[in-house]
Amino acid sequence: MSDPHDHLRDDPSLGPLVDEHGELALDPHDDPFERLVVAIVRQQVSMDAAAAIRERLFDAVDVTPEGIAAADSEVLREAGLSSQKTDYVRNVAEAFREHGYDHDYFAELSDDDVRAELTAITGVGGWTADMFLLFALGREDVFPVGDLGIRKGMEELFGEDTTRAEMRDLAADRWQPYRSYASLYVWRAYEG
């Protein structure tokens, strides 16, 4: 298989971004549970708000399945989680404890099977599952068109009238099997 950066350098839209930003890497997170909790914290809030909540949460509790399960709900809410997100992180903790989720568990599953497994947990939707595939597992061919930054970056690269379906098709036609790496550069296009 070719090098993802060489593949993307050949693309007229992403090539300049690869040259500008260098070879961006996918680094799987050491702790998949922690990374999934962070994805839930980041749901539908600004990056600044998410960073503040993350910091308070990690200061307040041990962010492990056992630590979240044992934490008082009020402590989780004081860290900045809504009542709904408090339920979501508890659901994730329960699923990790029940199924023994870890890197080895997910290693043999396809991206679609990982999505199906995770989205069966109340509070984990498609966007959250995609963030998990990208940042917890380091999967190479994920294109999270549900992400606002991805959509804005695609609009920056291909025009504001580009639909989500067109974004998916463009990514598949031009960047597969390295759409995760392409995502890193599309985010950079959005960030400006």
Looking at this protein, list some descriptive labels.
0% strand; Endonuclease III, domain 1; 192 residues; mainly alpha
Describe this structure in words.
The chain is 67% helix and 0% strand. The chain is mainly alpha-helical and 192 residues long. The protein has 2 domains: 4-26 and 143-191, Endonuclease Iii, domain 2 (Orthogonal Bundle), CATH 1.10.1670.40; 32-136, Hypothetical protein, domain 2 (Endonuclease III, domain 1, Orthogonal Bundle). α9 packs across α10. The protein is globular, with a radius of gyration of 17 Å.
Task: Provide the fold topology.
Elements: H1 4-9, H2 15-21, H3 32-42, H4 47-60, H5 65-70, H6 73-78, H7 83-99, H8 103-107, H9 111-119, H10 126-136, H11 148-158, H12 164-175, H13 179-191
Helix pairs in contact: 3-7, 3-10, 9-10, 11-13
| Individual helix count | 13
Query: What is the percentage of strand-forming residues?
Result: under 5%
At the first level of CATH, the class of the largest domain is: Mainly Alpha
Can you tell me the CATH architecture of the largest domain? Orthogonal Bundle
Distance, first to last CA = 31 Å
Helix content: 55-70%
Radius of gyration: 17 Å
The unreliable regions are none
Given helix and strand content, the structural type is: mainly alpha
Overall number of structural domains: 2
What best-fitting shape do the alpha-carbon axes yield? globular
Order of helices and strands: HHHHHHHHHHHHH
CATH superfamily of the largest domain: Hypothetical protein, domain 2
Number of separate strands: 0
The whole-number mean of residue pLDDT values reads: 95
CATH fold node name of the largest domain: Endonuclease III, domain 1
Q: Major sheet: size, sense and barrel closure?
A: none
